[in-house]
């Protein structure tokens, strides 16, 4: 199952993404899990326990985009070259598909274990990018990988998304079985929820709100009044989290019982989501055609609608061309 954590900047989405991943592997040892940091403010590795000074040494997906494209392209005859692939290019017959826990050259080069979690990061927005690059190009590698990633039963992909509603600038927001919107009991945080839900509902995105930094019953009542039935659960202010923010990453077993129970509630909601691979692929195709018409055809110099393979069927039984 694929789950995204979104929310206003500072709401705690990265912290909860890390806690959720840690709780999942602790409660189910050996569970196949891949974490992706798709926020250009790269903090997921630190939240998982990597010292801040070492986070810059992690390989960045955005620095290896051509390699990613070459691998995923496989022998797909509809893709003329790696440079003709864009972030929305969907898989087709001949494409290489990714599995959550397999060994492959991309994972060997780009995935590292941090705090017991397999992690890949999109890469920070560097000084060389200022004024000349759009950060959406940084997260393009994540979207491309998710388009080609087939997760099976009991497998998990946890993605820390960029803050706010900026993910709607691409089709990335449709790549998840469940989107967890982390919401503080404030009007500003609720405002991001309303902006997100207005977009998401039109595309059938499953959305669950998790309250964060909750102090008391009044905070819960405020959230429930603002988001209604979308409120799935909430996490109280936490000395455990505060210790992590100060550099003391404690064992996940030390997290407050009520907060661990909230994470288990999120997992139960995720596990209950049904898979619809046909819809998953059709949404990828829809956004690919939109991007092709809007900018990609002109940039690449060919009609990228031809990359869509109408006979390809995505899912666990899909033939992966070359592994």
Q: How does this model look, in words?
A:
The chain has 323 residues and is α/β, with parallel strands linked by helices. It contains eleven helices and ten strands. The protein has an eight-stranded mixed β-sheet with strand order 4-5-2-7-1-8-9-10, sandwiched between helices. A two-stranded parallel sheet has the order 3-6. Helix 8 links the parallel strand 9 and strand 10. The longest helix has 24 residues. The protein is globular, with a radius of gyration of 19 Å. About 2% of the residues have low confidence.
Q: How does the helix and strand content classify structurally? A: alpha/beta
Helix-residue proportion: 25-40%
Strand content: 5-15%
Low-confidence stretches at least 5 residues in length (pLDDT < 50)?
130-135
Number of helices: 11
The H-and-E topology, N to C, reads as EHEHHHEHEEHEEEHEHEHHH
The shape, in one word, is: globular
Radius of gyration: 19 Å
Number of strand segments: 10
What is the residue-averaged pLDDT? 91
Distance between the termini: 22 Å
Provide the spatial order of strands within the biggest beta sheet: 4-5-2-7-1-8-9-10
Largest sheet: 8 strands, mixed
